[in-house]
Amino acid sequence: MNKNSSNTSTDPLPMQSTSTLNITEKEVDGQEEYNPFEHRHVTHPTSTLGSFFHLLKSSLGSGLLAMPAAFKHTGLIPGCFGTVLVGLIATHCVHIFVSTSREICRQCRVSSYTYTETCENVFKHGPKKLRKYTQFVRHFVDYAMAGVCLGGTSVYVIFIASSLKDIIDYLSPSHTFTVKEYCGFLLMPLILLTQVRHLKFLVPFSLLANICLLFTFIITCYYTFSDLHDFSKVKLVSNFVEWPLFLSTAIFAMEGINVVMPVENEMKRPEHFLGCPGVLNITMILVATLYAVVGVFGYLKYGDEIKGSVTLNLPQDEILALSAKVMVAIAVYFTYCLQMYAPMDIIWTRMKGSIKQKFHSLGQILLRTFSVVLTVVMAVAVPDLELLIGLVGAIFFSTLGLFIPIVVESVHKWERDMGRFKFILWKNTFLMIFYLLVLFSGCYSAIKEIIIRYS
């Protein structure tokens, strides 16, 4: 979930891609230079401030509540530096991807491209030896995006189940169930909610989820920033072998590249997205700062007792804390269907051509049901919020947010301009090493802990 749901929690935004061949002012080598911004015809363009809030909302989700648990794996000092490092790398990867998308738009004389279309056209117009992989790249990127959403929604299931367990254990101590059992109880409500197929019907759910998350954050901050006096239970530096779980959790929390292109494509003044200060830079500075502050103070407050979401550490016997747990469960429940919208659209687009028209409705029902069952099974298999976030962040979010932008820029620049002393190649090699470090060490650490805890 990023958060990010996630997921990381983010709403799908409408995407437009229009093609035009209108002339522009300048000429380069006898051919008119194409400016994509001048040819974007968005019905309802978003202001610069509105785009800032869209991007901020996509980055600030349930992942924020997981940052104190991430700091447990590094300690305070490496956690602060690590948050800055992940924020810088995530921001840079968004920069290079958006810049590449704009360059390929100019080359193809198209007003805008989506995330998948950018990857596809970079390979289509890249080195000849790589062009045969164009369709493979399109499918890989689509399924990577679907994997991010499905992995993130698996985290949501654990998030809801853990919150429900805390709530019911307090209200009815005689009826105690495990987190796995609560995951099973959620199966049917999630299946029913996910059958909503049109984005406009999900708007009220999005509004309710945002309101609940806002109040949850306020209440959580009230408890987190009060009575900070016992610092003996925190570490300045934790064991180095635990650091990979911090990296994968931080990437899960902060990565929101899947909504970047829709936001940029819908802007009234897209030239304000990149650059200094720029919408992206301002947003990521604010996001990294908030994540560091919540991570530091959440860890100072609860130490090594911190759980996968800081809301699970709130008192069980106080109405205010209990209301926060109720609201975050409601918020994540309704965010679940919003996050499932994108992967369902991607997978159904691939499937519907091989299914007869009269069976399309049944096919959608079965696809959505199967997808929900899959996320619940993943949650039951790893019923630990902290470890599942680490695993999903290491595999899915790092691939979409780090690996793909690195490869796309490298392929696009390969026969064009790698910079002085091939700077771009060396820089992307370093970033690829970082990605592989997150992928393998994050997976190893998460799977190792899963085996230890559930063997």
Automatic annotation (TrEMBL):
It is found in: Membrane. It comes from the Eukaryota. Coiled coil: none annotated. It is a multi-pass membrane protein. One of its GO terms (molecular function) is L-amino acid transmembrane transporter activity. One of its GO terms (cellular component) is vacuolar membrane. This is Amino acid transporter transmembrane domain-containing protein.
